[in-house]
């Protein structure tokens, strides 16, 4: 059993920002347990983060964040936490390798996983010229020939958002899922081209820029930029639920917006929460959660000192 003041589950953008903040207090033993997955591992270039006008990849941002946290004494361990339970006033976490950890506080930054079909050539373009978030990257398709790969109404609703950025938009319903007559009507009125076809390949240039898609009937459709919207993303809410947090209908976790506390001695940050799913939002929430975790750890330390007398 390894004991800590705070364990952060998830080493993405939210978890790393929290780790940096907590480490800089220089008074807490902090561990980050990270499976090495998540949205930030897929993004080739974040374009909307302060200080990186030419963009930065998720992998580089994570590497720099880990180095920055480690310099303050924060510990890191690769693994996946599969169970969380309360043990008196402490919290016990169990990893998939059988290791157990005990801590006074927990920050859950487990995020979500996008549902991305296995389409040849798609992954190398993600976060570089093919995007998932219109708030983050709608700017990148402004007035450009754009293809949206999606599924049914999830894709149709995304198309209605993206058409505000470009008047040259093709929505390809890759999974041939049904779309309501009302959504078809609205797409037609907005000038969105619609195609129901299976995408065989996302074609790209040598530097990872999308150039078009190839469908199963051999048709080629040129494109300068792309988006995906397949729906069915998986929110990793299970640990929060095990620790008594309230889960919303969409499986995101509810938390106090001022402190990011979701249950006693349990905080959340990042895409796990009920809010806009952006890296910059995740950073802010990670810092806020860390500040309040520090306050709680100070209270625990004070009470412990008093009880000794």
TrEMBL record:
Tell me what this protein is called: Thioredoxin reductase
Q: Which Pfam families match?
A: Pyr_redox_2
Complex and partners:
Homodimer.
User: What InterPro entries does UniProt report for this protein, alphabetically?
Assistant: FAD/NAD-bd_sf (IPR036188), FAD/NAD-binding_dom (IPR023753), Ferredoxin-NADP_redctase_2 (IPR050097)
Asked whether the UniProt record includes Flavoprotein among its keywords, one would answer: yes
Q: Which UniProt keywords apply?
A: Flavoprotein, Oxidoreductase
Per its Swiss-Prot or TrEMBL entry, what cofactor is needed?
Answer: FAD
Q: Which domain of life is it from?
A: Bacteria
Q: Where is the FAD/NAD(P)-binding domain?
A: 4-286
Q: What is the native source organism of this protein?
A: Paenibacillus tundrae
